[in-house]
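Bench notes, afternoon.
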Amino acid sequence: MHGRGGRTYFCRVSSTSSPTDVSDSNTTTRVHRLADLTWEDVLRLEDPVVAILPVGATEAHGPHLPLGTDVIIAEAMAEAGGARLAKERITSVILPAVAYTAAPFAAGFPGTVSTPVDAVAGVIAAAAEGAERAGSRVLAIANAHLDPTHVDCLRGAVAAVSAARRIAVAFPDVTRRRLAERLTEEFLSGACHAGRYETSLVLAARPDLVRPEIAAALDPNPASLVDAVDAGHRTFEAAGGARAYFGWPAEATAEEGRRTIEILGEMLAESVREALGGAEAT
């Protein structure tokens, strides 16, 4: 989705394995998972510290991708961003991912969990408070769930935290034109839910969870979610996605996924650098 005149739309401009090796000798002491640390480990983290919160959803992603697709992508983005920051001697702590949020477009499909719209706002506020108390300078949000309701809520939560707390917030919103244009052609088309874009990302990050024989047999679905939202549709079924996918999943490749994860990681790192600069200036 993307932002057009301040509005948010799908895709177009508006883990056990990972393509990023966070154990590399240059990054191993600078990229951590919060859930693996003790509270005393947190005290010993080398400054500057950035807390990275992966944000996804549990929702239908076609017949070929897992319900946790957005979480997989968000965690891959967080790891790629953390690895880049580590090379600049910035410590990253990857928080446990948000897996439940508003997902009304997919709510009609079994397995989708759609929460009230303000649920994610409370999680963002709590994460910011905890990160600030632990000494983090920045809370970075690696978001991969692009339902318009969720993105609007996320933007509001970021603004509220920025106004109320000292910790800086980095949120590379890929639905904004300047970032979306760095992603793939399908992403820009608006037909990109569980299509080539997301299938490639999961092939790169968690190939064991992709059903490749099903993906290869899926016909293209070029229906644009941008146009669907403009027309007032609010579900995948109404938008033309009877099987909860849009785009060209049969064309997905792990190579494209790896390239895209690196781009997403660089976007996150850039946003963190900007936030750190602003925090140091205040």
